[in-house]
């Protein structure tokens, strides 16, 4: 199988590429290498490819380059569209840049697929931010976390869309374009509205990838800032489980085509970002981990987001297998064993 991964040298992309190489697929990485850690991830993938039956190619280009995308997509069977501007804060500071990368970039990917003689499937990494702040959803406050009053399984795909922040708007525009290219042009497209994903080869920073950011900061004595009161709840998903979902969607593309799926840890893998996460960090660090300061809530920050993942479980047979404690410990050990990557 011929596969193209936009953003393939990023955290999610390189883990997906590793899996596909191990399957013996031909993998083309399309990445501009602008994110910290991407050159290291690419070099790692080249080493991985030497020991697999698959083959690896690399195109250094940007998703804003429509011609380059059309050339890259000409003979592929599937495009995993993972490239994007990933931080809400950056979108607020530079909304045009955010729009051009996320909205226009996704449009370019879809047009490349539409014009390709091979008519590739397109699997798109969307975000739970398309649901906005969900101010109308009743929230209860407990000692260490917030929770939904009336949604015991979390937010379903039927939750009304409410794009909040330029990032929410640009990713949401891509989300809806991907859906509509199935309806209008018959492309086999799938939208994954992803929650907080974490795992190996993630170079998290304050604005994005908070689980990895906290793990890296705790190990290297870097400052940690908490925005809000630290009771915000997220369902977190280990990278291997996310890659499983991609593979299942591709394997069952005739079922998944045209669908939107929430993909997250679900109710079983929820944690508050500091009040419940800090004890795990402190146990792994074998000493208290103390934030440098608490700041104001950030725009668009949801007090709670938990995905209802029953649709993807029902239709594709997917559910997370790696729990929070196990996944965070795996990440902790990888950061410790690869400390030179973080100097």
SSE layout and pairings?
Layout: E1 2-6, H1 11-22, E2 26-31, H2 38-50, E3 55-60, H3 66-72, E4 78-81, H4 88-93, H5 95-115, E5 121-127, E6 139-141, E7 146-148, H6 165-185, E8 189-194, E9 196-198, H7 210-220, E10 225-227, E11 233-238, H8 239-251, H9 253-256, E12 259-263, E13 270-272, H10 277-285, E14 293-295, E15 304-305, H11 310-316, H12 324-337
Parallel strand pairs: 1-2, 1-4, 2-3, 4-5, 5-8, 8-12, 9-11, 10-14, 11-15
Antiparallel strand pairs: 6-7, 11-13
CATH class: Alpha Beta
Q: What spatial order of strands do you see in the largest sheet?
A: 3-2-1-4-5-8-12
CATH homologous superfamily (4th level) name:
NAD(P)-binding Rossmann-like Domain
User: C-alpha Rg, in Å?
Assistant: 19 Å
**Largest β-sheet summary:** 7 strands, parallel
Number of helices: 12
CATH architecture: 3-Layer(aba) Sandwich
* Cα-to-Cα separation, first versus last residue: 38 Å
The number of domains: 1
Instruction: Spell out the helices and strands N to C.
Output: EHEHEHEHHEEEHEEHEEHHEEHEEHH
Mean pLDDT reading? 96
CATH domain fold name: Rossmann fold
- Fraction of residues in helices? 40-55%
Proportion of strand residues? 15-25%
Determine the structural class based on helices, strands and strand pairing. Answer: alpha/beta
Can you describe this structure?
This protein is α/β, with parallel strands linked by helices and 343 residues long. It has a single domain (2-342), classed as 3-Layer(aba) Sandwich (Rossmann fold), CATH 3.40.50. It is 40% helix and 19% strand. The strands form four sheets. The chain has a seven-stranded parallel beta sheet with strand order 3-2-1-4-5-8-12, sandwiched between helices. It is globular. It starts with a strand and ends in a 6-residue tail after the last helix. The model has no long low-confidence stretch (mean pLDDT 96).
């Amino acid at each position: 199988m011929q596969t193209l991964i936009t953003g393939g040298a990023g955290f999610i992309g390189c883990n997906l590429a590793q899996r596909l190489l191990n399957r013996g697929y031909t993998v083309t990485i399309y990445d501009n290498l602008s994110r910290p850690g991407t050159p290291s991830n690419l070099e790692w993938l080249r080493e991985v490819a030497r020991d697999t039956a698959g083959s690896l190619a690399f195109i250094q280009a940007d998703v804003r380059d429509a011609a380059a995308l059309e050339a890259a997509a000409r003979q592929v069977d599937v495009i995993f569209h993972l490239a994007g501007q990933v931080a809400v804060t950056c979108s607020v500071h530079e909304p045009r840049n955010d729009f051009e990368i996320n909205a226009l970039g996704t449009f370019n990917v879809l047009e490349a697929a539409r014009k390709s003689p091979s008519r590739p499937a397109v699997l798109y990494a969307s975000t739970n931010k398309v649901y906005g702040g969900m101010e109308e959803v009743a929230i209860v406050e407990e000692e260490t976390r917030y929770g939904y009053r009336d949604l015991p399984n979390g937010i379903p795909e039927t939750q009304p869309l409410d794009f909040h922040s330029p990032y929410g708007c640009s990713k949401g525009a891509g989300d809806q374009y991907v859906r509509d290219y199935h309806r209008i042009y018959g492309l086999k497209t799938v939208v994954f509205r992803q929650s907080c994903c974490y795992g190996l080869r993630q170079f998290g920073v304050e604005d994005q990838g908070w689980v990895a950011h906290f793990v890296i900061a705790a190990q290297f004595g870097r400052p940690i800032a908490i925005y809000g009161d630290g009771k915000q709840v997220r369902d977190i998903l280990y990278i291997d489980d996310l890659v499983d979902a991609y593979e299942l969607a591709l394997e069952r593309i005739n079922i998944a085509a045209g669908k939107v799926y929430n993909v997250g840890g679900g109710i079983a893998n929820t944690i508050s970002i500091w009040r419940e996460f800090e004890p795990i960090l402190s146990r792994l660090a074998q000493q208290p981990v103390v934030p440098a300061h608490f700041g104001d809530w950030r725009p668009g920050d949801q007090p709670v987001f938990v995905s209802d993942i029953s649709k993807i479980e029902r239709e594709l047979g997917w559910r997370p297998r790696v729990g929070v404690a196990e996944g965070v410990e795996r990440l902790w050990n990888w950061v410790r064993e690869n400390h030179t990557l973080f100097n």
